[in-house]
Specification:
- The structure holds 2 protein chains of 2 kinds.
- By secondary structure, chain A is an alpha/beta fold.
- Chain A has 4 domains: about 5-120, Response regulator (Rossmann fold, 3-Layer(aba) Sandwich), CATH 3.40.50; about 135-300, Rossmann fold (3-Layer(aba) Sandwich), CATH 3.40.50.300; about 305-380, Helicase, Ruva Protein, domain 3, CATH 1.10.8; about 390-440, Homeodomain-like (Arc Repressor Mutant, subunit A, Orthogonal Bundle), CATH 1.10.10.
- Chain A has helices spanning about 10-25, 35-45, 60-70, 85-90, 105-115, 140-155, 170-180, 195-205, 220-225, 245-250, 280-285, 290-295, 310-325, 335-345, 350-365, 380-390, 395-410, 415-425, 425-435, and strands at about 5, 25-30, 50, 55, 60, 75-80, 95-100, 130, 135, 160, 185-190, 205, 220, 230-235, 255, 265, 270-275, 300.
- The termini of chain A are far apart.
- By secondary structure, chain B is mostly helical.
- Chain B has one domain (about 5-75).
- Helices cover about 85% and strands about 0% of the residues of chain B.
- Chain B has helices at about 5-40, 45-75.
- Chain B is elongated.
- The chains are: A alpha/beta, B mainly alpha.
């Protein structure tokens, strides 16, 4: 038997849902608004909360905030009229929040209640705080970021997120959306992943019959996002010749689907992201200036993980907790392990940290609570970045050539035929070069 | 994307509100129908089922009224 709290302002619905849930063998309490729900949560422990999105005294999301701030453990199922809310919840939540769509059926309630067996798992008192339901970190840089998110969420300005790969640009986009307290969806698309032919239809939609294969009308992402948020990832990878179309939509706030004549109003906030630096944007000819000013009304720089090392232990704990919940394990870090994580540079940022911890969880003995970290955290990408960094102005071509030959030989264990092939020179030329370098390579 | 809420944006928000309202009775109809099923399957008193059916009929009227509101709103926007 579970203790269930049902939060909805429709009295007839709560009465009948209450009878059905009681028939399923659970104990139900009812709250008609946020205030009553908070009072119930203060009084007793619940295993499951059914929560309507729109309540008379505010959004149901406030109650989720309350639950997470007070380290409460119920499983939460949001009741929504809008299936598009899925995307938004996916970013917000973690394993303990789900949603069901009106009109409800008995099965929906049953499935939601059956999903929750792990709710009694302990959430340790040291569990890192999640800002806006998803961001972890207490460093000064992150506090600044939180302030910026709060400020910009109150406006409808377009935001451009900049930062290295893996710093969590999409998570920040979701945080901004979360901070607006909107029931509207957040829709994400990756401009770098779309072919030139498809990008128009993906962004702006198409009418039935617009081109071969367009068998039905398709909504573009601008339309899907409604009054919510559109997240355009890797916006600088969008082909330059498609950018004028995007500019027109941003300026006119109207979109015309491919093959259509009807204009559709665009009301969403556009949050875009790029892993290129401001200098690259200026020099690289990757983003038209006029588009930049439309997209980056409010630019936000997300700091690299190595610039906020104090957050590494918190993030590591948060990831470990998530993985523990997923795998029903109970691993904990030793203080020296956290220190070791803190020392690494994490060129792949938070994504790399998460990956390293995931790998450690898989490698560790699930019957124990000690987690085994790998001896080194080197990834193929960390070595690449070092190599490219070593190329600096002032080096001679000879130096670079010599270094390249050295690295290539090391890679193929000194096999000169293979090395010559990789370098695109004949074996003879390679021998000549090595000869010229003298004893260094006389192995 | 400006700070002020434009006219079309406001209209869309109003329309979404009306659609949200119309989902309320549909949700009640669905749950009351589940209640009828439950009453019949679990051998509950007949009155339980009749009460739920009456509520379904009332909610159908509510839903029709809400749809009329949407229709009126759309006409008023033309």
């Amino acid at each position: 038997m579970l203790e269930v709290l049902l939060v909805d302002d429709d009295e007839e619905f709560t009465n009948v849902a209450c009878q059905i849930i009681e028939f399923l063998g659970h104990q139900v309490s009812i709250a008609a608004n946020l205030k009553e729900a908070t009072e119930w949560l203060q009084q007793q422990k619940f295993d499951h909360v059914f929560l309507d999105f729109m309540l008379p005294d505010g959004s149901g999301l406030h109650l989720i905030d309350y639950i997470s701030k007070n380290d409460l453990t119920p499983f939460v199922t949001m009741i929504t009229g809008h299936p598009a809310v899925k995307g938004m919840l996916a970013g917000l939540c973690g394993p303990k929040i789900d949603y069901i769509v009106k009109p409800l059926q008995r099965e929906d309630l049953e499935n939601a209640l059956n999903r929750k067996p792990k709710s009694a798992r302990k959430v340790s008192a040291t569990s890192p705080k999640r800002y806006f339901g998803c961001l972890v970190g207490e460093s000064e840089q992150m506090q600044e970021l939180y302030t910026m998110i709060e400020r910009v969420a109150k406006t409808s300005a377009n935001v451009m997120l900049m930062g290295e790969s893996g710093v969590g640009k999409e998570v920040v986009a979701r945080a901004i959306h979360h901070a607006t307290n909107s029931e509207e969806p957040i829709v994400a698309t990756n401009c770098g992943a779309l072919s030139k032919e498809l990008i128009g239809s993906e962004l702006f939609g198409h009418e039935k019959g617009a081109f071969t294969g367009a068998v039905a009308r398709k909504q573009g992402v601008f339309e899907q996002a409604g009054n919510g948020t559109l997240f355009l990832d890797e916006v600088t990878e969008m082909p330059l010749d498609m950018q004028p179309n995007l500019l027109r939509v941003l300026e006119s706030k109207r979109v015309v689907p491919v093959g259509g004549t009807r204009e559709i109003a665009v009301n969403c906030r556009v949050v875009s992201a790029t892993n290129r630096s401001v200098e690259e944007l200026a020099e690289g000819n990757v983003l038209r200036e006029d588009i930049y000013f439309r997209l980056a009304v409010f630019p936000i720089d997300i700091p690299a993980l190595r610039e906020r090392r104090s957050d590494i232990p918190l993030l590591a704990q948060a990831f470990l907790e998530e993985l523990n919940n997923e795998n029903a394990s109970a691993f904990v870090f030793q203080p020296e392990q956290l220190e070791k994580l803190k020392q690494h540079d994490w060129p792949g940022n938070v994504r790399e940290l998460r990956h390293a911890i995931h790998r450690a969880v898989i490698m560790s003995d699930p019957t124990q609570t000690t987690i085994e970290l790998p001896k080194t955290f080197l990834s193929p990408f960390s070595s690449v970045s070092k190599k490219t960094n070593s190329l600096t102005a002032g080096q001679t071509i000879d130096d670079v050539e010599r270094e390249l030959i050295q690295i290539t030989l090391a890679k193929v264990d000194g096999n000169k035929t293979l090395a010559a092939e990789m370098l695109g020179i004949s074996t003879k030329t390679l021998y000549n070069r090595l000869h010229a370098y003298g004893e260094v390579f006389d192995s | 994307m400006g700070n002020d809420i434009s006219q079309p944006q406001q209209s869309l928000a109003d329309l979404n509100k009306l659609i949200h309202d119309a989902r309320g009775p549909l949700n009640r109809i669905s749950m009351q129908a589940e209640m009828v099923k439950l009453a019949l399957e679990a051998d509950m008193p007949k009155e339980k089922a009749i009460e739920a059916v009456n509520k379904i009929i009332a909610a159908c009227q509510d839903c029709s009224r809400d749809l009329q509101h949407i229709s009126d709103f759309v006409k008023s926007q033309k």
